[in-house]
Design goal:
two-stranded antiparallel ribbon, 15 helices, alpha/beta, Nucleotidyltransferase, domain 5, 372 residues, six-stranded mixed sheet, single chain, 8 strands, 13% strand
Length: 372
């Protein structure tokens, strides 16, 4: 068994390969081009041995290398190394933070059996989902910018349009009937022509956004039908479900509910100030998931909400703590626990079921599977 470390930057890849005893076998730098990646592939194949490769999480920079090698190098196992854990390892070893040195450090990190996550086909599928979600975020941002400018232009020359509600206003803009009437009522031809151009761009963005959302929904039905049905039973929208799945990817890689909660943005850390000490939500975790959960809970705890179980738990927490903010955080944590239990057991959420003791039951199931 050989251990490879790959440090990926914007334009190049640094490779170092160690034997099982820790001796450096080979190293080198490769450009992130078709020719450079081909040379990297041949270098790995020439070793003629099973290779475990460690790559530090660097977002989009590492994906071209991962996709290329997974398709072409047989017997290659690629592991993702968390940046925080890797930096701690470097400091403990007294190593320097440099590209070539990092490649050796990554190989040594993996050789010692330190925490790393094996990349599977589910990660590759999830990358496609993340691309679609990123496109949706970009289109939403552009759409909001155009809408702010377009409404400002319309209200400047047609003040009466301020009385229209947001849905009615954009319905009229989309149909275009109101613009034809406005054209007869104004002599500001240059402003109206700008409105028409902005409207054309807005319609194209709206169409692209709708197409992207349809692709996201089709992706979920094709690759994550079971998770989709389970999360729908909680009342999550398909867009929210897509964000959830793109973050956790595979529920099986979390050893317990605590690890899952922490990864989803609801992990606690100890806050100390003088002699005071308390648990607070870790602000360095996934903020967007917390935002989605907050919006879900705001809808769930309303007076006419059908989310009876969530609402009851929230009201108990308000009564217990006297703080709505603390109650929201507690309820968000409980919902994430329920999500974990249902995904682990592969069953939809039942509003009447008692999920309070499922953590104990799940640990018993895991221990029994380990014994088998």
């Amino acid at each position: 068994m050989l251990y490879a470390g790959v440090d990926v930057s914007k334009d190049k890849v640094s490779l170092a390969v160690l034997t099982s005893g820790g001796t450096k076998l080979t190293s080198g730098d490769f450009d992130i081009t078709t020719e450079g990646l081909k040379l990297l592939e041949l270098t790995l194949k020439h070793l003629k041995d099973e290779i475990s490769m460690a790559i530090e999480q660097t977002g989009t920079y590492s994906m071209p290398v991962i996709l290329y090698l997974m398709e072409r190098v047989e017997g290659l196992r690629i592991y993702l190394v968390d940046g925080l854990n890797f930096n701690r390892f470097i400091k403990l070893e007294g190593r320097k933070k440099q590209d070539k040195a990092d490649a050796v450090s990554l190989a040594e990190y993996l050789r010692r059996g330190l925490p790393a996550r094996l990349i599977t086909s589910k990660d590759i599928k999830a990358y496609g989902l993340k691309v679609l979600i990123s496109e949706r975020e970009h289109l939403l941002k552009v759409k909001n910018q155009i809408e702010n400018r377009l409404r400002q232009l319309v209200e400047t020359i047609f003040p009466d349009s301020k009385t229209l509600s947001k849905p009615v206003f954009w319905s009229e803009i989309r149909k275009g009937r109101a613009i034809l009437d406005w054209k007869r009522l104004t002599d500001k031809a240059e402003v109206l022509s700008t409105i028409l151009r902005e409207r054309k761009i807005w319609l194209e963005v709206v169409h692209s956004l709708e197409e992207t959302e349809r692709e996201i929904n089709a992706f979920l039905r094709a690759y994550y039908p079971e998770d989709l049905n389970i999360l729908k039973s909680f009342g999550f929208s398909e867009t929210t479900i897509a964000y959830f799945i793109s973050v956790y990817v595979d529920i099986g890689r979390f050893k317990d509910v605590k690890a899952f909660k922490s990864y989803m943005g609801l992990g606690l850390r100890i806050y100390q100030s003088g002699k005071k000490e308390k648990n607070v939500v870790n602000s360095y975790t996934n903020k967007y998931i917390r935002k989605l959960l907050y919006m879900y809970l705001v809808q769930a705890v309303r007076e006419r909400s059908n989310h009876r179980r969530v609402k009851e738990y929230y009201l108990r927490q308000v009564e217990k703590s006297g703080s709505k903010k603390k109650a929201i955080l507690k309820t968000a944590g409980k919902v994430i626990e329920w999500v974990y239990y249902c995904l682990k057991h592969k069953e939809p959420f039942r509003w009447e079921a008692n999920y309070e003791t499922q953590q104990e039951n799940l640990s018993q199931v895991n221990s029994e599977q380990t014994e088998d």
